[in-house]
Every structure is written in C-alpha cells, then in structure tokens.
Amino acid sequence: MKTIFILFFLFSCSSITQKTTSAEISIDSAEKVVEKMPESSDKELLKIALKQSKSELKDYRSITEDLTEKKEKAVEIAQSKSETAGKWEGIRNVALFAVFIFGVFVVYKVLNKFKGVSL
C-alpha cells in the first residue's frame, strides 16, 4: 500500500512539473502575440494579466520544487522504514518459531508424564 502511495505521489509530482513547464511556454507565446498587437487598452490589460500569471506560475513552481524535495525525503524515509521492518519481521519469525518449539517441548513433557501416552 505504501509503495502504491509513493508511486502515485511520484507520478503526480512529475505531472505537475510538466504542466508548469507547458504553462510557461504558453505564457511566453502569448507575450509574443501581445507584443505584435496594435496599441490599445486591451493590449495593456493583457500585458498586466500575463505578468500576473507569470508571477503566480513562479510561486507555483517554487511550491512544486518544495514538493519534489519533500517527495525525495519521503522516498528515502519509506525505504529505510521498509528495510527496518524487514529486519524486525525476520526477528519476529525466529521468535515465533522458538515459541512453537518450546510449546511442542512442553506438550511432549506433559504427555510424557502420563504413562502410555506418547507422540
């Protein structure tokens, strides 16, 4: 389940990065088109809107970069936890086997006390 979550997180971060890159290209293209427009109040409004969009996109890009850094840290933590969990699972299995052997030994001793009963 953790692996699925990590893979989904990785995919969503890469998708966000691709979308911001394509948005930057679109804004740059729109600025070129606006520059070729004849002078008007609409042209000035479009320039202002594009500048605002560009600044918002920069903020969005910084958030995406922060998420990417956090994603990398989360992957490292998940890998270390899975390694630790694997070690503890091995220790647990050995302990359960020891308890099983001890239980068989106790049952054998109890049955051995009663004459005529054997394994």
Molecular structure report:
It contains two helices and no strands. About 90% of the residues lie in helices and about 0% in strands. With about 120 residues, the protein is mainly alpha-helical. It has one domain. Helix 1 (about 1-35) packs antiparallel against helix 2.
**Strand portion, in percent?**
under 5%
* Integer count of domains: 1
What is the H/E string? HH
Biggest β-sheet: count, sense, barrel? none
- The averaged pLDDT comes out at 75
Decide which structural class fits the backbone. mainly alpha
Poorly predicted segments: none
The coarse silhouette is rod-shaped
Condensed summary:
The protein has 119 residues and is mainly alpha-helical. The chain contains two helices and no strands. Helix 1 packs antiparallel against helix 2.
SSE order and pairing:
Elements: H1 2-36, H2 41-113
Helix pairs in contact: 1-2
What attributes characterize this protein structure?
119 residues; rod-shaped
